[in-house]
Amino acid sequence: MIDESAIRQRFEALAPVLDERGLRRLAAAEATAAGRGGVSAVMRATGLARSTIGRGLGELRAGQIQDVDRVRRPGGGRKPLSEMDASLLDDLRSLVEPATRGDPQSPLLWTCKSLRKLAASLRGMGHRIGRTLVGELLHELDYSLQANRKTREDRTMRSRRAIPLHQ
Length: 167
What we know:
Blueprint: H1 4-14, H2 20-34, H3 38-46, H4 50-62, H5 81-84, H6 88-96, E1 100-101, E2 109-111, H7 115-124, H8 131-140, E3 143-144
Parallel strand pairs: 2-3
Antiparallel strand pairs: 1-2
Helix pairs in contact: 1-3, 2-3, 2-4, 7-8
């Protein structure tokens, strides 16, 4: 008889500190240790899919980790929005160019428009985009998100002292 509550206890204790690969390998080790019916018991105890446990078993059989820096295979994840929406960068350029500032000889450019306003304008054009992505795209287009710093006035305000009219 397989003690699923013990498996669940060990899994819940280690889950917060493990990444996806670690969780897969832990589940696979538990299934191997349980013997016949171990995969089903681990599935019930942890809530992981059978395919995930199977992938972990394959990794354990292989013995070594192929790519230590990666948890998932290369190519996974969402494609960049600028790659999926061909007109996005062109529309952003058309919004930014009239308000572009900077020295023509210098590669540093900046815009007077805020990220919030640019995102709202792009959404008005039919793009699904937020402020964060607008900032990243502007950075790709070599725009700085920093404006010139205002100069501070003299704290003593000597230049504003009252000058008597009648002496």
